[in-house]
Amino acid sequence: MSNINTKKLQKILVIVGPTASGKTSLSIKLAKKFNGEVISADSRQVYKGMDIGTGKVTKKEMQGIKHYLLDVVSPNTQFNAAKFVKLGDKAIKEITQKGKLPIICGGTGFWIDALLYGLPETVAPDWELRKKLEKLTAIQLLKKLRRVSPERAKNIDPNNKRRLIRALEIALKTKKPVPLTIRIIKYDALKIGVLRNRQDLKKRIHNRLLARMKQGMAREVANLHKNGVSWRRLDDFGLEYRFISRYLRGFISKEEMMTLLETAINQYAKRQNTWFKRDKEINWLNNEKNTVKLIKKRLFDK
């Protein structure tokens, strides 16, 4: 349910979709066409030094378009949705004051929802509960989460104990499902989803993984550890950082790492799609011409 008249709100463009769908390149094309600037909504691109593994846009790829919320903090600093919302609101204000269009682009659905509709009620850490939950395996935590908050369980990284524990903490303390139930609309957002069929996306994920390994992704992970990022912290970042760090420690072979990582990325893309598909406001488009037409009509028609 929405409870604010969207006609009075700042217009923004939101580009979403699963990893490797082509969101970044589309956002830059649209920023050039509609005089916009891009705000990254990616929970790992906020960290300095995590470039290849997160697919962080390069200066060359930006083509002169200003980007926000990249390289915000060191990997040893905790960064959460609340901090993202604070900096995201500030960036939107800065962009609109220049007379430009704010374009939110990313695949971290929870952060995007938090920016557009506000965060769910804050739940203070329960250290006793966390201590008990820490003793459980990721599989056991996921089973518990499925019982108390099935929707959140569908969209969470099943191997990330820290996130599983936090989701359980919120669900158990509030006795409510973790996702937002009441939406306070902050912006007049046009949401566009980048549509890819499953086989196309799998192929793009495969090719991108090979390209990133050639770029030196394993070296990037090794350098992060050398510069003081613990193996546990790298594991918490998931996907590329988790499996490459396990390979570097000798826990798995390079072949195993590549197989496990590609499978995990495909599973992540599936979870992203599940999250975004529940939002009926997203316009799923696979044609740039139709995308441009929709933006003109929705954001620029008087």
Q: What is the count of DSSP helices, taking H or I runs of 4+ residues?
A: 14
Report helical residue fraction: 40-55%
Q: Say what the CATH topology of the domain at 200-268 is.
A: Helix Hairpins
What CATH architecture of the domain at 200-268 do you see?
Orthogonal Bundle
Average residue-wise pLDDT: 92
How would a crystallographer describe the biggest sheet? Answer: 6 strands, parallel
Region (Interaction with substrate tRNA): 42-45
EC number: 2.5.1.75
Function: Catalyzes the transfer of a dimethylallyl group onto the adenine at position 37 in tRNAs that read codons beginning with uridine, leading to the formation of N6-(dimethylallyl)adenosine (i(6)A).
Catalytic activity: adenosine(37) in tRNA + dimethylallyl diphosphate = N(6)-dimethylallyladenosine(37) in tRNA + diphosphate
Structure description:
Its cofactor is Mg(2+). It catalyses: adenosine(37) in tRNA + dimethylallyl diphosphate = N(6)-dimethylallyladenosine(37) in tRNA + diphosphate. InterPro entries: Dimethylallyltransferase, IPT, P-loop_NTPase. Among the domains are: 58 residues, Histone, subunit A (Orthogonal Bundle), CATH 1.10.20.140; 69 residues, Orthogonal Bundle (Helix Hairpins), CATH 1.10.287. The chain is built from 14 helices and six strands. The protein has a six-stranded parallel sheet with strand order 3-2-4-1-5-6, sandwiched between helices. 53% of the residues lie in helices and 10% in strands. The two termini are 26 Å apart. α3 crosses α4, α6 runs parallel beside α8 and α10 crosses α12. By secondary structure, it is of the alpha/beta class. The longest helix has 24 residues.
